[in-house]
Amino acid sequence: MSSEAEAAVLNQDIDLSQVDSIIEPYLGRKEMVIPILQKVQEHFGYLPRPAMEHVARRMRIPLSRLYGVTTFYAQFKLKPLGRNIIRVCKGTACHIQGSPKISERIEEILDVESGDTTDDLRFTLEEVACIGCCALAPVIMINDDPHGRLTQDKLKDILDSYE
Amino acid sequence: MYEKHIMICGATGCLSSGSNQIAEALTEELESRGIRDKYRLVMGGCPGFCEVGPIIVIFPDEVFYCRLKTKDMAELVEQHLIGGEIVERLLYKGPDVDAPARFYDSIPFYSKQRFNVLRNSGVIDPESIDEYIMRGGYRALKRALEMDSQAICDEVKDAGLRGRGGAGFPTGMKWGFTNKAPGPKKYIVCNADEGDPGAFMDRSILEGDPHAILEGMLIAGKACGADEGYIYCRAEYPLAIKRLRTAIEQAKEYGFLGNNILGYDFNFKMNIKEGAGAFVCGEETALLASIEGKRGMPRPRPPFPAQVGVFGKPTTINNVETFANVPLIVREGGAEEFKKVGTEGSKGTKVFALAGKVRNTGLVEVPMGITIEEIIFDVGGGIQGGREFKAVQAGGPSGGCIPQDLINLPIDYDSLTQAGAIMGSGGLVVMDDRTCMVDLAKYFLSFTQKESCGKCTPCREGTKRMLEILERITEGEGKPEDLDTLDSLAHSIKDSALCGLGQTCPNPVLTTIRYFRNEYEEHINEDYCQSGICKPLFQYLIDQDNCTGCRACVRACPVEAIEGEKKEPHEIIQDLCTRCGSCIEKCRQDCILITRVGSEADVGN
User: Fold this and answer.
1) What stretch(es) of chain A map to CATH 3.40.30.10?
2) What is the DSSP letter of B472?
3) What is the pLDDT of residues A86-118, one digit of tens each?
4) Out of A132, A145, A151, whose CB is closest to B237?
5) Distance, in angstroms, between B141 CA and closest chain A CA?
6) Which helix (H) or strand (E) holds B349?
7) Which partner from A160, B272, B325, B485 sits 20 to 30 angstroms from B309, CA to CA?
8) What is the interface pTM, i.e. ipTM, of the complex?
9) Domain at A84-160, CATH class
């Protein structure tokens, strides 16, 4: 994503009262910080810095440690994502059935690198270790829809069906 | 009372081949005829045969319909449900059967399987505790509650159950350690962080039979003296998590969870923890850290979790499939029954995710000791497209490749370890002659390298250096001494890494070098990748004698690197070709050849 597009999203107002109601049931239970962050991310689509700072303060966990946790787990995103998330399965079965070619073609069509978001915020392209439907390799998930037994020529139509 | 139960596979495999649409079409069809009430429609667990999805099984007739389309539903309702006659057209057909086949008894995919763990999967409604109970569920728990803790441990040990998560440690012994550990508070943890790429056994068990996991954990709780459990499940498995939550609610309602369970002096509380995407969390000490809300980094053992586990308390950690086996063993006479299947050192069955270039992909449960040949050729139906079997990768990134020569190897813990692989969680990825073994080793290593938590140096730095060497080899920059360097690095990492991830991650490299050294040497010394995977090391050529000039490849090529008139043999312009492989996917004559760089058109190799 270009830096302007990013800045535009980052400057959004973050409503911390939502964060408060997420934290409330877990106050004083530091072991619940991962579920809290999961819920915060579910709400905002990513983990905005003000929200992270708020969680750190209320849970009495240093922000640095919270940052350590968020960067350790692949699920947590510190930047906003696109409207549609493409997850290209990089499992073994998919790999030997040609998933590298599938990623390359998607990168080409959308002009975006794996791990990044298109400028119009339409797609975020990610790689995941295994979606768990190896029988249909190679597979991608777009949002919650799996698309299996892919070949390169099917990709354009599939991508076109997401706004 | 329903006339028939219609199970529509609602597992991920069938969902992506469209089982939701099938369910909608079927419901609509039944409603339009006003007979919806006569039938029970269940989006159930997985019958395992993902290759031919979407699947519908009709009970009590036990008829298995596959490769369904929405437009087939009218005929299915008309002919089978109303008319009582099987729709032959929609039955399983394949080169391995003479006539369309009905189900377990006649489909070769099922005939060598033996269902223990998957006994309920695809048969019961996973969201109904009543159906689980009707199939004998929670009876083993009742029996366990009347037994002495140590007696349960002994029984499980005697049955020979070994951990299904990878290392194969005897489960009963593990429970005994936790049971003997001092202290009033103990935990049971279910490791459902199935991260191995190419493995989806645990997911299917969780989605298809969640109560079996709960029952297994409860029995473990009684055996270990624990009163609280955690199920640590990957966040990538939302359906599994949903079904577990439903199961827990139902179990509470029926008095299988909570205080004074079934009137006995036994309490148990169950929690679900969603993982957040870190492969290393499948390692037990890392998983414990993650439950505590920390970065999931492993720590040295001892102390083992049986002494110091979650929140510092004694903890038993077992994998999903291990727990699913427990109710079968602890029920009346179960241990004897369990022991009858398997080999001397490995009892019972094992669930494998059969994937890759095998014809029948899916989830299979087979007796321990079955040979690789039986799994791949009898259950799996051989290799896709009739190509040549080259190797099978067992155990994911921690496992190894087993070559064609060892096809008679019986699959059990000990023989797999001897061959350099591991049982692991049970992924079996089959490879044909178009899989490059160097690329495969690179693939696994790049996976473990990315997932290395960075805590210990051998894993963090060692995997990086090994990966650099493999990358060079696949780019045609290999040096003759590379193989020795890889070997020495691999052994240092194996000997000195902190956790299981690090200690086992060199296995794919070591086994591919052991069994496919010639391929490495071909890459390094002859700049040639015979499988056509490593792009700088081969080129495509069109077989001028066999090309019919159908233009399929011309249309498929995204860079216009193929030219030729209709009905005339085509040619590839090597300078433009990006070796993306689009043409080879489309060619029906199999006349796109993989050749050495610089070969001329008439060279067959």
Assistant:
1) 84-160
2) H
3) 999 988 888 888 899 899 999 999 999 988 899
4) A132
5) 30
6) strand B349-356
7) B325
8) 0.85
9) alpha beta
